[in-house]
Amino acid sequence: MMVVPGSMPMITLSVLNRFLILLLFVYLKKLYKSISLFLKLLITALSLWYIYSKVFRQNDPASLFSNMNPSRSYLLGLVLVLMPLNWSLEALKWRMLVARLEPLSFFRALQGVWCGLSVSIFTPNRVGEFSGRIFLLEKADRIRAALLTFAGNAAQVFVTLGMAALSFVLWRLFGLELPAHDESAYYYSQGVLNGVSLTGLLSFIFALSLAALALLFRGRITNRHALVIRSISAPEWRRLIWLSLTRYMVFLLQFYLLLRLFDVDVRFGAAFLLIPLVFFLITVIPTFALTEIGVRGSAALFLFSLVSDNESGILAASLLLWMINLALPALAGLFLIFRLKFFRGE
Fold it and tell me: pTM for the full model?
């Protein structure tokens, strides 16, 4: 066999390069797995720490819930039963949206929603919810999946603003019986309700304007990732809104039942007017993990103290609503965190 001068070193170099590339690939794969494991452990630790610090370290559960009415304990059972319904509706929304990228079973979609809660519970305004969901997907483009997840959240925010606007309309049409003890307190209550509900109405009008502009310029979307938003049909948008509205009403009913559980004497009509304003304030006020519960409790106390002097009951209802709807599903999601795939090929 004839050997061309200089060919052997070239062949050896080629083999060496391939070997080094293979070693680098193996090393990077192990590194990705190590980073992925670290992220999963970090998410688990931060979630547990946050729930502990909010529920047990800063509050004495025994004293906080001491004014729970034992004769109405069945209401707590109803609220607990409504929690899976609440997140099942969210899972249906997300499943419908990402089906164009990756078909999911209902239970896998629910797993994604709960994983998102576990990640988001310690992030500002729960923005980590996007990553918790999309990293559960195996094949879908993650940027497009994040955009579709954002569309689902936008539908929920739209409903929240719409209900706040409805509160303003109902307030102006029917008013609200305010147990003010003097004239100044009465005008203060009137000012608070007018201010918050009017802000909700203006926010809804602004959201409608943005939606109209998005629809007007929809055909001009050319970005290959953003094109996925154009794939959402009008019937799908309507279904998104209806699912979001149903989920919202579940939230509203849960909060009202908890207020009754803690003997906050408020009629359903007044609650139907005030709870949407509480949810509106929670939505528009920027929060961080360490302040979210404080904002929730403050918003509820700020508005419901206009019709009830049971401040401890209002705060307890707000905290228990957070524990049932966010903390419990987030804890369940921790068992699924290790199914997340932060890197392709894990």
Answer: 0.75
